[in-house]
Structure formats: C-alpha cells, structure tokens
TrEMBL record:
CC annotations in GO: cytosol; protein-DNA complex
Stretches assigned to the Response regulatory domain: 10-126
Domain of life where this protein originates: Bacteria
Pfam families in alphabetical order: Response_reg
Single GO molecular function: transcription cis-regulatory region binding
Record's protein name: Response regulator receiver domain-containing protein
Spans traversing the lipid bilayer: none
Organism of this sequence: Mucilaginibacter frigoritolerans
Modified residues (4-aspartylphosphate): D59
Keywords: DNA-binding, Phosphoprotein, Transcription, Transcription regulation, Two-component regulatory system
Keyword DNA-binding on entry: yes
PANTHER family: REGULATOR OF RPOS, TWO-COMPONENT RESPONSE REGULATOR ORR33
Amino acid sequence: MNFSNPNNIKVFVVEDDLFMQAVLQEFLQATYEVAIYPNGFDALASMQRGNLPDLIIADLNTPQLGGLELIEQIKISDFFYSIPIIILSGEESTAKRIECLNAGADDFIVKPFNPAELDARIKVILRRMGKLTLNL
C-alpha cells in the first residue's frame, strides 16, 4: 500500500510495451495503487475475480484484447460499467478517438504525452466520481 494514496485509489494500467509500463508505474505509484496488465484480457480476468479499479488507463493496441474491445466488454457489464477508462495511443486519428469516446471511453490521450496532463485528466475524472477532493 502506498502511503501517499490517502483516498486508496486503484488504477489499472493495460499496456504491453515494457518501457511504457515502467514509465506509467513510476509516475502513477507516487499517488495511486497501480496494477499493470499486458493486455485487456488479463485486466478483465482480474476484475472478474473481484479486483476492481477506480480507473483504467489502457493502450489502444494490446494483444488478446485491445483498448477498444476492453471498453466494449466493460460497458456491457452491469458490474463494471461505471469504471472510467482513459485510452492512451500513438494513434492520432480523429476517427479512432471518436470511436473510442463513443464506445464509452472517458478520455483519449495521444502518445507521447505529458505525465502532468495525464495526472490532471485522471484527477478530473476521479473528482467527478466523488473519489477525490481538490486538495490531492
């Protein structure tokens, strides 16, 4: 348990690139409890075992179950529907962003990204959910 996580916020990171996993782990663990999954299938399996995150950050293109498919699986579930999802992708296509947002993603961030901007976007979503106060 991370002592700088007073709200006990759990973030799942779905990313197959080892470098990006390390970057996101290093950056996010200062504020959140972080679990890394190499694909959406493993993240979904963990959720089905009762390990529920407060927020998911998912790469658009991971093997077995990519970001868009993960969004679709989460949004059709009565149990997981309300879990917010931020998509990270090197894909700059406006059409792909719109597709993800229309499927239920809460945000879409293009790689490379500014970690401070990612943190600000995470906090906006968590505040809307009532899981975070402004002073974190």
